[in-house]
C-alpha cells in the first residue's frame, strides 16, 4: 500500500491506522523501547507534512543564523555606524525580539502554526527587503526595530517544533525532534561556510544605478531569497494537522480515554 493509505485525515486531524504495527506495545508502557528500525518505520509512516516542517525549519535556521553571523559587520560597514552605536542598536533589538517572542509563543496556541507562519513571513519579507536593499539609516532602523521583531522574532519561538509535536506521536517524536535539531544545526553550519566563501571569493558588484553590493550585502540578499522561498512553501503546503495513533497516544490523551 502507499504511504497515504496508512492515514485517514481531515483538514485538522490525521489519524494513523498503523495496520502493520498493531502488535507494538502502547507508548505509555515505560518498559518498552523501540529499536532503531521500528522507530524509523513509524517515522516514515507519518504524513508528508513532517518533511515540509523540517524543510521550513532548515530554511528558517539558515536565514536566522546567517543574519546573526554578519549583522554587526553589516551595520558598521554598510551604514557607517560606530562600534558603540552598533552595540547599542543590537542590544535594543535583542530586547525587543525577546518581547515579541514571548507574545508570539502565546499567539501560536491561539491562532495556529500556519497563520502565524504566514503572518510572520509576510512581515519578515518587508524587513529583509529593507535590510538587503535599503541604504539609509532610517531603513535600517525600521528593519531592525519594527519588521524584524514582528516577523523574525515570531519565527524564533520554536514555531515549527510546535507543528512537529502535533504531527508526531510519543514513539516517533524523539526521532523527529532529533532530525529537527540536526536540520537547524546543519543550516547554521552551511550559512557560516557560505558567509566565509562569499567574503573570500566575491568582489563588490556595482549596479547600473551606481549602487554597490559588497559581499556581505550580497549574502543578505541571499537570505532575502531564502525568506521568499520559505514564505512560498509555507503558504502553499503548510497545514495545521494533528496526528493521532490509537496505539501510540500521549499520556493525557490516554488518560482521557
Overview of the molecule:
- By secondary structure, the chain is mostly helical.
- The chain starts with 6 loop residues before the first strand and ends with a helix.
- Mean pLDDT is 82; it is low at 1-11 and 16-31.
- The longest helix is centred in the N-terminal third of the chain and has 31 residues, at 49-79.
- It is 67% helix and 5% strand.
- The radius of gyration is 21 Å and the shape is elongated.
Question: What are the SSEs and their pairings?
Answer:
Elements: E1 7-9, E2 13-16, H1 36-44, H2 49-79, H3 83-111, H4 113-133, H5 137-152, H6 159-167, H7 173-201, E3 205-206, E4 212-213, H8 215-237, E5 242-244, H9 251-256
Parallel strand pairs: 2-5
Antiparallel strand pairs: 1-2, 3-4
Helix pairs in contact: 2-6, 2-7, 2-8, 3-4, 3-5, 4-5, 4-8, 7-8
What is the gist of this entry?
With 257 residues, the chain is mainly alpha-helical. The protein has helices spanning 36-44, 49-79, 83-111, 113-133, 137-152, 159-167, 173-201, 215-237, 251-256, and strands at residues 7-9, 13-16, 205-206, 212-213, 242-244.
Structure class: mainly alpha
Give the strand tally.
5
Mean pLDDT: 82
Whole-number radius of gyration? 21 Å
Treating each run of at least 4 consecutive H or I residues as one helix, how many helices? 9
Q: Beta fraction of the residues?
A: 5-15%
The main sheet comes to: 3 strands, mixed
How far the N terminus sits from the C terminus, by CA atoms, comes to 30 Å
- Shape, per Cα inertia axes: elongated
Percent range of helical residues: 55-70%
Secondary-structure element order, as H and E? EEHHHHHHHEEHEH
Which ranges are low-confidence, i.e. pLDDT below 50, for 5 or more consecutive residues?
Answer: 1-11, 16-31
Strand order of the largest sheet: 1-2-5
